[in-house]
Amino acid sequence: MVLIAAAVCTKAGKTIVSRQFVEMTKARIEGLLSAFPKLMSTGKQHTFVETESVRYVYQPLEKLYMLLITTKASNILEDLETLRLFSRVIPEYCRSMEESEIADNAFNLIFAFDEIVALGYRESVNLAQIRTFVEMDSHEEKVYQAVRQTQEREAKNKMREKAKELQRQRMEANKKGVKSPGFGGGGFGSNTGYSPAPVVGDSASLQADITKPSFTAIQKPAGTTKAMKLGSKSRDVESFVDQLKSEGENVVAPAVTRAVPTPRIPLILSLVLALRVGRDGGLQNFELHGIVTLHISDDKLGRIRVQLENKDTRGIQLQTHPNVDKELFKSKSQVGLKNPAKPFPLHTDVGVLKWRFQSQDESCIPLSINCWPSENGQGGCDVNIEYELEHDQMELNDVCITIPLPIGSSPIVNECDGDYTHDPRKNVLLWTLPIIDASNKSGSLGFSATALPGDFFPLQINFVSNKSYADLMVTEVLQVDDDSPVKFSMDTVFFTEKYEIV
Fold it and tell me: Are 355 and 423 members of one domain?
């Protein structure tokens, strides 16, 4: 078959969304679309109509039509099968078959149409594959976002610690009796230069006092003064010290020094988890992938070895990069290049070690989820969902449990540990918890909804963590020539790629 175009139009003939798959002029495609309502005949049950050059294959969608324009030489059975797939795609992205809803989701529909047909020919895809392709999921983007969230969280923690330290220093200064500079004795006194107006007894004197200023000019101190200026730390320090000395404090001004940044090698340990568990229990799939990457920005630190320590007893399968010396890794657990005279690449993320771990042991599950839907006899279900952290040493952040709902169903939440959000556009209930650790290792969510027990599956679980699931870590980084240590930083990112209860 050769598919010319796919469109969603109203029964009056107005085109809402149209996607063209073969090269054709704008006037030609607009003419084909505008001719469709004129060719419709009443009282017939056919789902297609033909002209001398093209065939229109259509399916009613409440107030709309899903329309395909094909060549007359195409197979009508294949046309109808493709039409059914197009018709199933629209409810995937639109809550209702209204014109405004179709227009709001036009871009998603066009992306989905492009996955069904390429250059006029049908692709071998199903609805689940189309959903995955349109999401444009990226492993690299997940790693980047997870690293960024971890770094932002650590920066906020450092800011809180710094604020507490500054508050502590202020309290200690107040205890020692150090006065704040620049305010003298405080309040309105004789030192301010303000003179109260005299008491008068008649209107003439009052008028004279009103026209005469009741304050004296503030005299500037003799000699030069050092004002505090923004952008000059040394002058700020000198001015602050001079003010303290003028108030009788014995202060020794500290020397102003410039901190020289120490060369440092950043390393990232990223772990990705794919997990599938049955709704009645039983681990169906557990797969963990990990990789260690380093980034060298100083050419003096290019020739290094990375020392690893592996205490994991679950049998993870390690694999080094082809350019890494495998014998060195087996004998000393060090990651170094085969040719020690060559440096690692500069200014790029280099993956030096990766591993894989698969298991059917349920004890490997980091976070277990139990979903118990039961019919309530009123045309709906009462649902109870529980979570439990299985490994106390883990700390899971930004946990989100996505619960699917039937179209049009509005859940009534009875109890919730954490927060919840109902997204009617995607027909899901989002249960979110900022952190799950040993202090809140279990929790529950209870709600009621008009649905069948099977409508709440599959559940999707997402989280990030800066705690490594595998007991593998970098202990030190050494120079190749003299084994001298090199400073390094280590960021650990552990997140879910696909964690579902089916």
Answer: no
Mean pLDDT over 389-405 rounds to: 93
CATH number for the domain harbouring residue 383: 2.60.40.1170
Whether residues 376 and 451 share a domain: the answer is yes
Same domain flag for 356 and 376: no
Last residue of one domain, picked from the residues 88, 109, 135: 135
Task: Note whether 4 and 103 are within 8 A (CB).
Answer: no
Q: What is the SS3 assignment for 316-343?
A: CEEEECCCECHHHHHHHCEECECCCCCC
- Residue 496 has phi, psi (to 5 degrees) of -95, 135
Task: Give the residue numbers spanning the domain of 438.
Answer: 367-465
Question: What is the sign, positive or negative, of the torsion defined by CA atoms of 467, 471, 474, 475?
Answer: positive
**C-alpha dist (Å) from residue 58 to 34, 36, 54, 224, 303:** 14, 10, 13, 89, 66
Q: Smallest Cα–Cα separation from 289: which of 359, 356, 361? A: 356
* Cα 306 from Cα 473, distance rounded (Å): 10
Kindly report, residue by residue over 23-54, the tens digit of the pLDDT. Answer: 888 888 888 888 888 887 655 556 888 888 88
Question: In the chain, how many domains are there?
Answer: 3
Selection from 25, 148, 4, 142 nearest residue 72 by Cα: 4
Cα-Cα-Cα-Cα torsion 238, 243, 247, 252, nearest 10 degrees, comes to: -10
Q: Which residues contact 313 (CB under 8 A, 6 or more apart)?
A: 471
